[in-house]
Amino acid sequence: MDNQSTPTSTGPVIGIILAERIFAGLIVDHQLQGELHTYPPGAAPMDPDDDHALVELPTDSLIHALCDLVVSLAQGHEKDLAAVGIALPGMIRGGVVEEAPNLPQLKGAKIGELITAGLIKNGIAAPVTVLNDADAVAAGLASSHGKLDRLIRVWTLGTGIGYGRYPFAEGVWEGGHSVVSLDDKERYCGCGGVGHLEGIMGHRAMRLRFLDLEPEEVFAIANTRNGERSADPRCNDFKKLWHKSLAAVTASSIHMDGPGKFFLTGFNVRFVDMNLLHDCLHGMVKMSPLQSYSIEIVAEDQTTRVIGAAVAAEQVSRR
Ligand SMILES: [Zn+2]
User: What is the pLDDT of residues 12-51, one digit of tens each?
Assistant: First the structure.
């Protein structure tokens, strides 16, 4: 288990997150200074699904927008800016976007190098770290929950399933694509892989599995009580499968990386039945030194992610 000392303050850091749009903030002592800046500027549409601003944007324009945000946020701090952290949904290695299903134009882009070069032209020499957005969630939650000295793991339950880890470590960490089923019929994952966690728990995958029911309806039917048997046994079976899958990846992570804190976040934490999840995990983790794990549902927002991108970048810049 990691046991690093709690980071102490340095110069200001800029955290950026690419989601439906870009959110950026100046972070001092792990706190946001002023407002989040956004690109495109202005209010986001009510439904994030209607927000395609970034998908249409060519990589060059995106890099320009990112540099402009850093330059405007760094005003007055050009010389003492300690780091810049950029988090985006995708597989990132060494500052290169290797895979980004939601921002396909970025595949292969050397974001780290391009931003660094753009900033140098503007007199900013701060090191740039590019990371996966779930790692930014983990770092942001570690910071807001006072756990910067611990290993923190996060499952983000949304359209897809993200796995985040703090402290930030270079690696692939595509935990959402962990294999949790050996059933050949389990092929709902967006990546095309068989038996993947996201193919069972992801919102998109659930809609593909139940073409006649929305995920909300599936869980509502499965949760029907008063002794009456569910009208649709598929829903009960699926609720069990969903929780067993989450327990399975968590148990695997415990067996590989040790016990500790797991956070659950994302819009589908509303489907989590903690008792059922703990029952499943109890059957899967039997070695007593590994049983000191804990699981907590937490809320997070773009500010948490922006702070997390900054915290992770600050940590990397000190190595
Ligand atoms: Zn997959």
Answer: 999 999 988 899 999 999 999 999 999 988 766 666 555 6
Point out the residues of the chain with pLDDT beneath 50.
1-7
Report how far ligand 1's centroid is from the alpha carbon of 66 (Å). Answer: 29
C-alpha 126 chain-centroid distance: 24
What's the pLDDT at 223? Answer: 85
> Residue 184 Cα, ligand 1 centroid: separation in angstroms?
14
CATH number of 13-132+301-317: 3.30.420.40
CATH fold for the domain made of 146-297: Nucleotidyltransferase; domain 5 (3.30.420)
Reference 169, options 140, 141, 145, 139; nearest CA is 139
Q: Report how far ligand 1's centroid is from the alpha carbon of 107 (Å).
A: 17
Q: Which residue has the tokens 């008063």?
A: 226
Dist. CA 18 → ligand 1 center (Å): 21
- Is residue 263 within 8 A of residue 304, CB to CB? The reply is no
**Domain boundaries of the chain, sorted by first residue:** 13-132+301-317, 146-297
Q: What is the pLDDT of residue 2?
A: 43
Instruction: Kindly state the tokens that stand for 34.
Output: 């002023």
Q: In this predicted model, what pLDDT tens digit does every residue of 250-267 receive, in sequence order?
A: 999 999 999 999 999 999
Say if residues 153 and 259 touch (Cβ distance below 8 Å): no
Output the pTM of the full model.
Answer: 0.88
Cα 60 to middle of ligand 1, angstroms? 29
Distance 314 CA to ligand 1 centre (A): 31
- The Å distance, Cα 174 to ligand 1 centre, comes to 9
Distance 286 CA to ligand 1 centre (A): 28
